[in-house]
Amino acid sequence: MHAIHRNHYRIRFAEENGDIMRAEELRHAAFIENRPGARPRTDGLDRDAFDDVYRHLLIEDEISGTLVACFRLLPLRSGEDIGRSYTARFYDLSALQAYPASVIEMGRFCMRPGWRDPAILRLAWGAVANVVDACDAGLLFGCSSFTGASHDTHAAALDLLAARYRAPPHWMPGIKAPQVVTFADRAHHHQGDPRDAFAALPPLLRSYPGLGGWVSNHAVIDTDLDTLHVFTGLEIDRIPPHRARRLRDVLPPMPPLLAELAHSA
């Protein structure tokens, strides 16, 4: 088993079906069990057909063996293949099909409910930096989810995204999902303290603005998971150099598995 050890955590890729099932159990606990509006799965697993083709990254507590965080990754050779992604089910990504470099979808990121350690998110980003470098990726993308599908609950955060962080027009995802909240009339509505609105963003999404990331011009209402989510894109060459160095310094490379991952893109 190839792994990186930091603090008291072990960071590695899933290597067998049992590993993937543990990730699906954690996702169910994070995305479904704690959301009254989500549709429960009888088997206690958050699973879909994409799990069989994505690579799953696990962060485990070495003391207890507990899986504390996970996410899945899909490297693609260029934007031409972006229609294969999970995100393409919800967004029209035809504009991004012209993206010239390799791209990576990052999805289903979650942390174990009640397990509060800021080091976990830092380790996750360090692992992503590993993968981005191995694949020589130009774009990292995915969906970032708000807990609860009611857009009124997230009004201040959505107004902030609309006003400050929308995608460049030439990469802007189009509307595809049947239920969406558009940002066209929200960009001028942002009021109050922007720090409060920023704090209301989901933890992963809060990481993107400082890295130069951007979002779609609408949010998708997902009643199945009781979430509201936005497309999130991060062009690697737009990351401020000092932030890029800090991300790469979090973890050393994972050569054997990264070589396999890059080859499979």
Which helices and strands appear, and what pairs or packs with what?
Elements: E1 4-6, E2 9-13, H1 17-33, E3 55-61, E4 67-76, E5 91-92, E6 102-111, H2 118-135, E7 137-147, H3 155-164, E8 174-175, E9 180-182, H4 194-199, H5 203-211, E10 214-222, E11 227-235, H6 241-250, H7 255-264
Describe the structure using short key phrases:
265 residues, alpha+beta, Aminopeptidase, nine-stranded mixed β-sheet, two-stranded antiparallel ribbon, 11 strands, globular
Protein model, in words:
This protein has a single domain, classed as Aminopeptidase. 30% of the residues lie in helices and 27% in strands. The protein has helices at residues 17-33, 118-135, 155-164, 194-199, 203-211, 241-250, 255-264, and strands spanning 4-6, 9-13, 55-61, 67-76, 91-92, 102-111, 137-147, 174-175, 180-182, 214-222, 227-235. The strands form 2 sheets. The protein has a 9-stranded mixed sheet, with helices on both faces.
In short:
With 265 residues, the chain is α+β, with helices and mostly antiparallel strands. The protein has helices at residues 17-33, 118-135, 155-164, 194-199, 203-211, 241-250, 255-264, and strands at 4-6, 9-13, 55-61, 67-76, 91-92, 102-111, 137-147, 174-175, 180-182, 214-222, 227-235.
Helices and strands: which structural class? alpha+beta
Q: Which range does the strand content fall in?
A: 25-35%
Instruction: Report on the biggest sheet.
Output: 9 strands, mixed
Average per-residue pLDDT, rounded, comes to: 91
